Amino acid sequence: MTDDLLARHRAVLPSWMPLYYAEPIELVSGSGRRVTDAQGRTYLDFFGGVLTNMIGYDIPEIREAVQRQLATGLVHTSTLYLIRQQVELAEKIARHSGIPDARVFFTNSGTEANEAALLAATNHRRSHQILAVRNSYHGRTYATMGVTGNRGWSASALNPLQVAWLHSGERLRGLLSRLDPADRLDAAVEDLREVLATQTAGDVACLIAEPIQGVGGFVHGPDGLLAAWRKVLDEHGILLISDEVQTGWGRTGAHFWGYQAHGVTPDLLTFAKGIGNGFALAGVVGRAEIMESVPAISFSTFGGNPLATAAGNAVLDYLLDHDLQANAARVGAILADGLRAAVGGLDCVAEVRGRGLMLGIEFVHPGTVEPDPALTARVFEACRAGGLLVGKGGLYGNVLRMGPPLTLTEDEAREGLAILVDAVRSCADGEVAA
């Protein structure tokens, strides 16, 4: 990236739009799991456009599907017309959602998908009371910011919803972390009951939760947490929304959707990111009786347009034809096992966590659970210097996040692992030396 482009960026774009790296880079091309910057440097990409480029870059099957649609001359038509690609993709998603008698509504982003899910749930229940989870992230519109439990991503205190907050089940900090793991599910249920009794006026619309918290640093509660909560929700008729924007499409390896690790089926689930592989495509799928609760006309101008859904159909077909869920489990294990063996025992690493190709490393000051965002930033920069792009996040900015394309090969996983291990060890040694 040239200084000129950076200066132009800063002159016309708002300062609250962050740029990665001390010296921001401009990516100009990509192939497979690699991208190249304007200076000709090629990187192995372990973050995939924040888990968006799920199949990788310049994939022939996806490119050809998009080109076929472009050749018709129709990039977009109003969704007031029948769109064959949209209907075909909705049929596939409904079939694979696990939700009976499902209906699908397409949007452009995960934020819009969560907004649509909240619209359906609040109308169905005739209530604007929502249960949400601490350390969560659901989007940047007013309603989705209102159910985001992370101050760093809550850009406004204005909120059209009445929200009550549940403990996340995080294992390093907070009240539940003090308990024996076997007791945390019961404690989470007690917390939910107390919240319902003390912070709500009854008739709560829904609980919205991520099976694995993305922006929150790939934190997740124990398996079965959603099912334990669901038993209480069912006593009150409260709906369950599973935010699968980051956990969907087999990324966790063990399951196609994150909710399946909990032995429960949600009433609504939201999807985005990977299904478009870079094209703007997202949506919500839910039981018909809930999705049909919207009492007035509502449609998305661009959601489910012919070009995006042509890409989405090709992405989903490729994902299923190549069993990328199994690849995520296999290749993710190489990374997780390798990281735990090589750096998991370091005093500055509190935890290597995640599932499949959704992995995080949390950095702390040695001998404590005090977050160390400065060390995280150094490791982040060291990875880039070594030719690897990763992400970062967590409530305290101290988690290195990896979400590579699901097409990542075993050799590429080992290549990236070597860069990660070298970056962590070199920065940790510098911390000790300092």
Spans of at least 5 consecutive residues with low confidence: none
Q: On the 0-100 scale, what is the average pLDDT?
A: 95
Gross geometry: globular
**Termini, distance in Å?**
32 Å
Number of strands: 15
Q: Tell me the major beta sheet.
A: 7 strands, mixed
**Multimeric status of the protein:** single chain
> Order of strands across the biggest sheet?
4-10-9-8-7-5-6
- Percentage of helical residues? 25-40%
> What is the tally of helical segments?
13
Output the structural class. Answer: alpha/beta
Cα-atom Rg, whole angstroms? 21 Å
Strand content: 15-25%
N-to-C series of helices and strands = HEEEHHHEHEHEHEHEEEHHHEEHEEEH
GO molecular function: transaminase activity
Subunit structure: Homotetramer.
Pfam family, one: Aminotran_3
Keywords: Aminotransferase, Pyridoxal phosphate, Transferase
Could you walk me through the main structural features you see in this protein, from its secondary elements to its overall organization?
The chain has helices at 3-12, 48-51, 60-71, 84-97, 110-125, 142-146, 184-199, 225-236, 288-291, 306-321, 324-342, 373-385, 410-433; strands at residues 27-31, 34-37, 42-45, 102-107, 129-133, 162-166, 206-209, 239-243, 268-271, 282-287, 349-355, 358-363, 388-389, 391-393, 399-402. The protein is globular. Helices cover 38% and strands 16% of the residues. It contains 13 helices and 15 strands. The protein is an alpha/beta fold. It has a 7-stranded mixed beta sheet with strand order 4-10-9-8-7-5-6, sandwiched between helices. Strands 1-2-3-13 form a 4-stranded mixed beta sheet. This is alanine--glyoxylate transaminase.
